[in-house]
Hints:
The protein is α/β, with parallel strands linked by helices. It contains nine helices and eight strands. It has helices at 16-25, 41-49, 71-87, 115-136, 159-169, 180-186, 190-197, 222-231, 248-264, and strands at 2-6, 30-32, 53-58, 92-95, 139-142, 174-179, 201-206, 237-240.
Amino acid sequence: MRFAICLEMIYPELDFAERAVRVQQAGFxxxxxxxxxxxxxxxxxxxxxxxxxxxxxxxxxKGSLVDPQxxxxxxxxxxRSVEVARRLDCDRLMLLTDELLPDGSARPSxxxxxxxxxxxxxxxxxxxxxxxxxxAGITLLLEPLNTRVDHPGYFLDSAREGFAILAExxxxxxxxxxxxxxxxxxxxxxxxxxxxxxxxxxxxxxxDVPGRHEPGTGELHYGNxxxxxxxxxxxxxxxxxxxxxxxxxxxxxxxxxxxxxLLKAGYAIR
Length: 270
């Protein structure tokens, strides 16, 4: 497994490229982020050239999968993000079912669409995007989010439903982004859910509950979760997407300690 650090909520006093450098100095080999618009991609590319991988970033910031009237905008966002991914040697893009507003809530969708119609539209929208992903050699990561704390109004708030949707789409280029923080809030049963559906998991996000801080600050036992993933054969990335409870260096130190504990136990962690 590879540990990646999300740059969005750490070192707020630094620009993005400097944040990535600090992550590398802390001993990590990969980063991720949200939208690429407004970021210095040339500076990020220089950090990539220095050995920092980009695990994933947002494939769109506008448009919705639940509404076919927005698919043209959504698809264009993904196309542009694919070009940025090539530039950064990244092979995975995160997708949401809805566009998020600045407060984290989902932008309201058409009132005439029923939940069943929205679900069918998500399946058809992903199926339409699959050939684009396959041609580009990109994996698109559909992410369920929690609607109880952070993202009210968001359509896909269940990993179980997300896995069922992916089974219908039937493309190897579409996988689920399983966010442990979000799904602990919505469903719980994290380890067994991951074990049961691991072939459909393309990326994992990690933060503790409550508060969305670094592992070790809440109720989740990440040592057990990561051991279970490794024992089940997961060899992908774990993206630590969190707000530091205090100092960023201390938060990264906690994640580094978690990695060291796994290495001492004989697990292969990058």
